Amino acid sequence: RKIEAVDSGKSNIVANALALMNGYGSAGTDTTLIVNNCLLELAAATNTRPYEKLVDGMQNSADLNQQCNALSVITCLVLNSERGVPRDNVVKYLDALETSRKLAQTISSGQSPLAQSSELKRYLSARLLARHEDLLARYDPENPAQADLMVRLWRSCFDTEISGHVSSQWKRFGFAGTDPAADLNRTGVFGILCLDYMCTRQRDKVRELVGTQLDRPARDYPIWAAGLNLLSLVCEHFSLYTNEYDKIEILLLNDVFAFEEMFCAIVTAFDSVWSGLAAEYTDFAMIIAIVRKLVSDVLVRGANSMDVFNRNLTAAVDSVRAKRGQAIPEIMAALGLQDDSADNVALRELRDALIPQMFEYVGLALVVQMRAGATFLTPPQGKAKQPATLKVTLSDKNEALIIAPADAASEAQVQGFPIPMSNIASVVTGDACPYFQTPESKKAQVPLEPSKSMTIYFKEPINEQPFVHLTSESAKTLHHWLDGIAALLGRRPESEAALADATMLATLESQAQLVHLDGEVAIPATTPERPERPATTAFKIPSISAVALATMRKYGANGGFGGRPASAYS
What backbone phi and psi angles, to 5 degrees, belong to 528? Predict the structure, then answer.
């Protein structure tokens, strides 16, 4: 009955109803579900669209508290809905009411103090939550839903069947290599969804772009490698990687598909610059740098709508196309860019293809660190008021995590036990940990931080417990252990640090392969005659690290040259 009062038309009663809904919505998932069901019943009873009365209460009120309460309820409906169909339905109802666009109109008028409200930033974060999660989710070719999406991408351009998730056919489609995972490193599942958006909404344009590359093999370029590279720039500019906002971008409110539409625009812009400057394959790195500069300038300039964004980007592209006939390095210099073509496309392709292989070595390094152990906190047990401190190590044969109390006070709360790797069902982190869903977590004398916490679920209970909660000393330690556990379970480490380490190793390996080139070098058994002094010393090798790695790969870490020990050489 209180929630029905939001339709009363009397400001004080509406304000009271919104305040009540806000209190329920902020209390958690279960109470938000109650509010959601009541709003849906209200819509059915009054023959209105779901949430229409709520959105009207936000837009039509001149009272800031009422606006904030209504917006807070809307935010809670999104945040506290289970991901999947429940959350998708909430977003669908809100989009049908053009909630975000109405918010943009309200704050663009300059008359609403809501523009400065933290509630508006919280709403934007909730509205973009799904895209943020998809951006951080790594592409997994074994995931049926993702595999189906990739097949759909292929069929948007070709009538033949794709032969697998690693295939030379993906290069025909527009990826840089045979494995799309390399190009999707920075944009994850969101990159696939943006590709699907463009292939669905602009199918004829996509077929034209892909077909053009196939028709000019001497001047083609990996179109989706370029587009995904530029998409990562857009996501960085709008803070989608963190989903935390210092200011409100009107563009993101005015168009619910702003990111997807910008992706379509920058792919088209890149091809326009490429064609306009008659670029060749070896110019790819320079054209990427030029278009990144253009897109960055347009983003910094700002735009309230996609029409303005497209108009500004087109003008920037046309200004560069007008320079046709000039050398591309000259155009770069005019834009204040340096020619970085030494980091050529072929080397980057080799490095990116090696990155998935390098995760195995990153995992081995993490396992070594896990054997040294780390200290974690676990929630108080029994009548204890302080968290217990645990020492967690990995067994010598990598078969189990060993949990042991780290001090005498913890021994009174917790007994040590092993967790066999074969008994680990799953690992969750942050607010998804069950401890943070309990009242005890809010009353704790020593609060445990969600950003440093994980819960390991067991397949079979251990000491009658279905899981163990662990909070690390730092987020870095937590990610080391999450990546290490993933590696031990045969999965790919997912943190940014693991990706950086894998990229570094792939870079060294690619340089090592360049040292070897394609053939074998015969090492003489006897010392050859000293050659004449070279006329010039203007040469260099990629790096001494690359030479060392190449040597170890060819002869072994403890081997030598031609049967001689390595120590015989300086």
Answer: -75, 170
